[in-house]
Design a protein that fits this description.
26% of the residues lie in helices and 29% in strands. The chain is of the alpha+beta class. It folds into 2 domains: 113 residues, Aminotransferase class 4, branched-chain amino acid transferase, N-terminal domain (D-amino Acid Aminotransferase, Chain A, domain 1), CATH 3.30.470; 157 residues, D-amino Acid Aminotransferase, subunit A, domain 2 (D-amino Acid Aminotransferase, Chain A, domain 2), CATH 3.20.10.10. The strands form 2 sheets. Strands 8, 9, 10, 11, 12, 13, 14, 15 and 16 form a 9-stranded mixed beta sheet that branches. The protein is globular, with a radius of gyration of 19 Å.
């Protein structure tokens, strides 16, 4: 499946039915476009099964409630629609994007009477980063934008508006030859990459920022379980950027990124080692992917 995303073949599930891909359209005055009243999920399917499907669905429903609206489908119906969409597009390995948003019935900040729409698309999407670069460790820039305080945004929702600064930061990083960017939070502490959580290794112990102003990722929690199964200690804590000088390994986690070692964050260097590679392979074995 190649080409612009609005001109592809296949089917998208939208508001209760599968429709041709190119027919899945919204009006230019839809509230979600103007006021970011939209939530979404990123999910991967391996060998025909969507990994942690119910957890993703429950987070989608939670995110919508955080933005003040209710998706008009139960979790079981959303799960079934995801599977139906995957199968309709003939995919066994792929990426799924459920998205819910306020429609165009009202235009303005206030939009209580707008229809709540739900769509699900699925397509082929291989490794988020170049496979060879991934094993060597990707390079991250330091982002200028910071994750906002929980008092200023619904930071635990996977909401479209929260990704504006992620796009800006990733574009800036890529323009300088980096693969991604690391974001600090409003206090100046290490937070996350633009679409993934981050882990560091110090003397065999994993250190990761406490997710108090960003998503506690589903992949993050999965990798923490895999680390515990290996007997690794995990410390969730506030991490200041200057501490990165003392860490030996670094990797990021996310549905798209899976587990990806990092070799550089700004001025700080890391060497992908046994812990990063073992957890990468443990994750790929768990989801049914090919090990590195």
């Amino acid at each position: 499946m190649d080409g612009a995303f609005d001109q592809r073949d296949g089917f998208i599930w939208m508001n209760g039915a599968l429709i041709p891909w190119t027919d899945a359209r919204v009006h230019v005055l839809t509230h979600g476009l103007h006021y970011a009243s939209s939530v979404f999920e990123g999910e991967r399917a391996y060998a025909g099964a969507v990994f942690k499907l119910r957890e993703h669905t429950e987070r989608l429903i939670y995110s919508a409630k955080e933005l003040g609206f209710e998706i008009p489908y139960a979790a079981g119906e959303i799960d079934a629609a995801c599977i139906e969409t995957l199968e309709a597009n003939g995919l066994v390995d792929g990426y799924l994007r459920p998205v819910a948003w306020r429609g165009s019935e009202m235009m303005g900040v206030s939009a209580q009477n707008n229809r709540i729409n739900l769509a699900i698309a699925a397509w082929e999407w291989p490794s988020y980063f170049d496979p060879e670069e991934r094993l060597k460790g990707i390079r991250l820039d330091m982002a200028d934008y910071r994750r906002p305080s929980p008092e200023t945004a619904p930071c635990h929702a996977k909401a479209a508006g929260l990704y504006m600064i992620c796009t800006l930061s990733k574009h800036a990083a890529e323009s300088k030859g980096y693969a991604d960017a690391l974001m600090l939070d409003w206090r100046g502490r290490v937070a996350e990459a633009t679409g993934a959580n981050v882990f560091f290794v110090d003397n065999g112990v994993l250190h990761t920022p406490e997710p108090d102003c960003f998503l506690d990722g589903i992949t993050r929690r999965t990798v923490m379980d895999l680390a515990r199964a290996r007997g690794l200690e995990i410390i969730e804590r506030a991490i200041m950027p200057e501490e990165m000088e003392n860490f030996s390994e670094c990797f990021i986690t996310g549905t798209a990124a899976e587990v990806t070692p990092v070799s550089e964050i700004g001025p700080y260097k890391f060497t992908p080692g046994d812990i990063s590679i073992n957890l990468l392979n443990d994750y790929l074995a768990l989801v049914g992917g090919d090990t590195a």
